[in-house]
Amino acid sequence: MEKILSLNQLLEIRLQAKQQGQKVVFTNGCFDLIHPGHITYLKQARSLGDLLIVAINSDKSIQNIKGPLRPILTETERAIVMAALEIVSYVTIFDEETPHKIISTVLPDILVKGGDWSLDNIIGREEVELAGGKVLSLPYLAGASTTDIIGRILSRYSSNEHQNGDPIN
Q1: What totals of helices (H) and strands (E) does the chain contain, helices first?
Q2: What gap in Å lies between CA 46 and CA 142, rounded to an integer?
Q3: pTM to 2 decimals?
Q4: Contact, 128 vs 103, CB < 8 A?
Q5: What is the percent of the chain where pLDDT is above 70?
């Protein structure tokens, strides 16, 4: 839990990192069900700097973006899972629909999003670049998404085979 921080705590970490000459990498997302695509992406992001900050959307934020059936895991559960990953330095939760406030406050050295985001559409790009930072769109692992996993689960557990006694656990 010590890796899950408020925006004010993140700002302190950012200032310390800057004083020590460390590169801060920042990314954000829902990270509802962690899967191999997330791990690949987070490893690539972490390799770009000294610290990796991950901002996750709050439950309310995700519901506004993806609808009332999401997220699957609560913001607390998602933050705990994310913070448990060695490659992640710090985690924060944001309630807004975009991470603009966090990005413009923290001003990371490197802002990254997955390859499904074009550079022009990455929130915070202008602020980060004006501050001398870089913005990157990392390769996207096709077919690795939470939506795909949910689809697989629904398909498998709504089949006749499951209904005829195949236990869920």
Answers
A1: 8, 5
A2: 20
A3: 0.89
A4: yes
A5: 91
